[in-house]
User: Fold this.
Amino acid sequence: MKALVVYGTRYGTATEIAEEITSILKEEGVETDLLDSRGLKEWDVTPYDLVIVGSGIKIGKWTKGARKFLDKNKSALADRKVALFVSCGAANKEESRAEGQEKYLDDVAQKHLINKPVATGLFGSTFDPDSKQGFLYKQVMKSVKKDLEKQGIDVSKPVDCRDWDEIRTWTRALVN
Ligand SMILES: Cc1cc2nc3c(=O)[nH]c(=O)nc-3n(C[C@H](O)[C@H](O)[C@H](O)COP(=O)(O)O)c2cc1C
Assistant:
C-alpha cells in the first residue's frame, strides 16, 4: 500500500498534523509521501492507494493550493481512497463542531470530490500568546483567547487544541 498526504497551511498548524499523519502511516508500514500543496503544479496521484488531503481554515476557506490539488486530480481521486482533514477554530468547541464538519469537510467533499471520502477529520487549532503574526491573525486570536479563557484554560502560554490521540487513531483506522 502507498499513501500520499497533501496539506495546505497558512500558519503551520495543518503542517504539523500532516507530518504526524505521515509518521503514523510509516509506523504502520505504509510507504507515504508528504507534500505541501502551495505552489504545487502537477503531481501524479495514480501510484497511491490512499490520498489524504487537508487544510487550515481561514475565513471559512481551505487554502487555494489544497483546493486546486483536489480539483486538478478530481477524476484520478475518484478511483482511490480519499480522506480529508481540517485544522480550524470551530473544532475546539463542542457547539461549533457540527457547523465546522458541514462547512469545511462535507461541503468541500461534495464540491471537490466525485465520491464520498472514506473519512473526514475535524481537528483543532492552536493559540500562541506571543505570536508574531499580523493584524488579522491577532484580531481572530482575541476571540479564540476569550473562548479558551471561558473554558478555564490558561492562555498565558501556548495552547494546543489538537487532540493528538484522536489524530493518531483516525490515521490508523485509515489503513487497518
Ligand atoms: C485570520 C484567521 C481566520 C480564521 N478563520 C477561521 C474560520 O473561518 N473558521 C474556523 O473554524 N477557524 C478559523 N480560524 C482558525 C484557524 O482555522 C486555525 O488557527 C487553524 O489551525 C489554522 O491552520 P493553519 O495554521 O494550518 O493555517 C482562523 C484563523 C485566523 C488567523
